[in-house]
Design goal:
Number of strands: 0
Helix content: over 70%
Order of helices and strands: HHHH
CATH superfamily of the domain at 34-113: 23S rRNA-intervening sequence
CATH architecture of the domain at 34-113: Up-down Bundle
Structural class: mainly alpha
Length: about 120
């Protein structure tokens, strides 16, 4: 993880980058019969960080649309990681760390989508 973040960065985005990096490393080691699930978790994890970043650069409904996509992709990552862990093809300890990080991302993204008035 980067030591310093620009003042205009989202903590949700930096957490998503950390979670995605861990997820990509886990998916890289998945055996052939589970590659399609690994490919899906890679796309979903990448989507979380990308959509948080793109939404941060937008305004209005477009911004919220990207953040909604990021939230949904984070839910998708959760499912794929749990499937791979339950199949015994990824390290459960590292998977739990990634799941926790994506849970944090979902919580932060939820707050971006539902600000307190």
């Amino acid at each position: 993880m980067l030591d310093t973040l620009p003042s205009n960065s989202l903590i949700a985005h930096s957490t998503a980058l950390e979670a995605a990096g861990l997820t990509l490393a886990l998916a890289r080691r998945v055996p052939a019969p589970f590659r399609s699930l690994a490919d899906q978790v890679i796309r979903a994890a990448s989507s979380v960080a990308a959509n948080l970043s793109e939404g941060h650069g937008r305004i209005g409904r477009d911004r919220f649309n990207h953040w909604r996509i990021a939230y949904g992709s984070a839910k998708e990552v959760d499912t794929f990681l749990r499937l791979l862990a339950n199949a015994g093809v990824v390290d459960r300890g590292q998977t739990n760390v990634a799941l926790d990080l994506f849970d944090q991302v979902r919580a932060m993204t939820w707050r971006l989508l539902h600000p307190i008035s």
